[in-house]
Write the structure tokens for this entry.
Amino acid sequence: MKRYPRETRRQKKRRENAARLTESQKPNQIWVWLKKVRKVGWAVIACIATLLSYITLKPSLAIEPYASQDPHNPFTEQFSVQNTSAYAIRQVEPHCGIENVIVGNGGFRRGFSVVAPTDFVDSLDPGAKTTATCILNQIVHDNPSQYRTLDISIWVTFKIPLGISKCKESYFRGIPAVDQTFIWTHKGDAACHSKPK
């Protein structure tokens, strides 16, 4: 059986001093750990506050079909434009963009837009609505029964506080319904970055 040498007084004293030193360092280690936790906590709070501010202050418009002045003519449809932001927006200017409209043997392709200046409004308060129309019926005089493909977008330029220009675009498709009437269905949204602001 192997014997280990006895601990000398000097070794024992060193071990006791090391133990005392470790015990005295514990409060300091706890304090350092609490400082780290506090820093991480503040970082998390700052991230949450930034995210909430972005959600609250992000400009938002809702564009959807509203009412038709003549159900037999798809281009008499009025689209509602509602300010769903938390603040008023200014210089609201709706436009009708042609994605793909085919009438009889002819039609319009992407990049062509029409605008009704009477749809423009100076200011739109939070929750307030205005309407936008796609006045192609003033250009296209064919019988609505000759309409084949009706893909359009309603895009709206506007200014948020501090005069920053923004734009929102929604895509719609006109679908023939009963009795030679038409209904518009929502196909998606975009930020319309390529549009003039």
